[in-house]
Amino acid sequence: MNRRRGNMRRGALALFVFFTALFLVLTGRFLYIQIRGVVNGEPLAALASKQHAKSEVIEAKRGSIIDRNGEVLAEDTATYTLAAVVSNRLSKTDKNPMYVTNKEKTAEVLSKYIAMSKADILKRLNKKKVYQVEFGKAGKNISVETKKKIEKEDLPGLIFTRQAERFYPNGTFATQLIGFAQQTEGQSGESSLVGKMGIEKSYNAALTGENGKLKYSTDRMGYILPNADKNVEKAKDGSQIELTLDKKIQTFLEDTMTTVNAKYKPKNMMAVVMNPKTGEILAMSQRPSFNPTTKAGLNGKSAGVWQDLPVEYAYEPGSVMKIFSLASAIDTGVYNPNAYFKSGIYKVGDIPIHDHNGGVGWGSIPYREGVERSSNVAFATLLNKMGTDTFEKYLTKFGFGRKTGIQLPNEATGKILYHYPVEKVTTVFGQGTTVSMMQMLQGASAIASDGKMKLPYVVSSITNPNTNKTSKTQMKVTGNPISEATAKKTREELERVVSGEHGTGKLYAIPGYSVAGKTGTSQIADSTSGKYMTGKNNYIFSFMGMAPANDPEIVMYVTMQQPQLSDTETGGEAVSEVFNPVMKNSLQYLNIKPAAEKKLSKIKMKDYTSKTVEEAKKAVQQDKLNPVVIGNGKKIVQQIPKVGETILEGQKVILMTDGDMTVPDMQNWSREDALKVSEITGIPFSFSGSGYVVKQSAAAGTILNDDTELKLELATPDSIEAFTKNNDDSDKEKVKQDTNIQENQGVGDLLTGQ
């Protein structure tokens, strides 16, 4: 018994000692903290401050993107995510509760503003053991207007979280150029808008601002304490970028591209409008494209949708390249518009180069007519005259084979294919060598602005709102590849491509305005076989034009790859449906008045008989008339119109020789002109259709006699190109057998040139 009591006393003593020691330790620790004010090496005041000090981010505004007239193309906006506090544990006794007090009413009201039924909302509000709930997709991307309406309902417990968004008010509008920005979470966990393509990406650093902070003190419930100190670090907004784009011209282009894209469904389509005097890009568009706000169309399925094609895509330009070939020939002095060459076929070693009508050609014709008809042979012979090394230097002067330096990412370099003799010849008419649209426009600016080549650019200025300083882009002359006289002469010759009798660009004439330009129909290399693709649709159809031709204010370039054409439709027609309305509307919008219609001079016919063929032709040309020789003789014995008759300049004069009568090439002739040949030869012709000659039953050069039956098929102007192109395709296999260039030299069959 005594032993048990002794044990109890010893146990009680031990407990007393333990608790006494614990009390002393805790008291000592408390006194130490109170005196020193430090816990684990950190000041107690700092810990208290951390518990009650709060901070909020003041979001910086991302810089806006505007057009040359201040119209907004991209700007910041805000959307909100809705949540509801359903737990009352933090404000159960408060007069102003911070949780949903009436779930039935809240569900009924919210169902009017978000895409969720009252029952589903109520189901979420009734969740147990959670502090707050969200409403899925229906509760996200709520607009400012909807947020304000919900707040007016005065429902406690609702929380809105703001997210910055990028808004593009014009929808599909220079999309690949402007690009888009979207929310991206950084390393610190904060999300911000980051550019993903175009201007938004390449100028992301300038557009992005620097967030500020708001610091303040709160009580345990999170309320700001009365007279609490506040510390504000102001946000620094991003810079505003002004583009060279003109919203009006861009709208013309986008509306037209949308219509034409729906009609022809090409694999891709590009178009750019540029001021050649400065290099400013006034409009730029492409298809495929997408809506940067809704992301509609940005599904990755359409090839090129993620590329800014006019900048990043390298392609074979086809006969549009002849613009620069012609300028080079004129600048070197080898181009004589009235000198003759033999069209049809030109041989590079054993490899034949064909004109685009299957190598038939148009006989011996002046170089000027060769340019109008887009003869490959004409340009091959001009290359021979100026020399391949000289032409290569001009290609370099015009900026081909290197980047222009435009202010956009991923610019294509292109490649001058100039190793083998045949490659040098094909380059002169745009096959084999690859280019970008920016390179073509840069080169065209030299033709349009008297030899001074301008760098294309899209950013006009950048303004920092924090300093109010603006940096402006200065026009940059990137070279003088040709003289002023050459540029003027080149424009004159290119104007004939559109307005001339044999011009392949007649479709691109705009009433009231003179247009200088060049068509293109380039082949497409098959990535699988390495050979050029065949078939009516498998081309890149294009046109580059400048207006007014004598002093261009606008250069416009349109390409369309593999449009889906019907049997009666042509690639030229499809391209003209983009070029013509946009060019015309742009000229009128810029208040460029139509030129007064040129009055043709009346000419009294002289006597050209008894002259040699060459003398007569030269005399007729000097009188601003168009000579057509019938027969293979050496002297002229008869003419129509007759001596003393009055005709307009540019009309045809039929000259009969003393030799055998021969059939002229009457392609694109009017019925009246063809009847002059019938009259002078005495051979009756039969006609079918109306308009202009597209087919004749006897080839040019055929001997005419009393037994000849000559039938002429006529068609309206908008059908002529379709007829010519169909004939070219029908001869394709024959020409391929003749050339075999793809297998021998890696260049491909040389069929196009329009």
Automatic annotation (TrEMBL):
Residues 599-659, 660-716 form the PASTA domain. GO terms for molecular function: penicillin binding. One of its GO terms (biological process) is cell wall organization. Keywords: Membrane. It is found in: Membrane. The keyword Transit peptide does not apply. Its main location: membrane. Residues 722-754 are annotated as: Disordered. PROSITE patterns: PASTA. GO terms for cellular component: plasma membrane. Residues 726-737 have a biased composition (Basic and acidic residues). Belongs to the transpeptidase family. This is Penicillin-binding protein. It comes from Listeria kieliensis. The lineage of its organism: Bacteria, Bacillati, Bacillota, Bacilli, Bacillales.
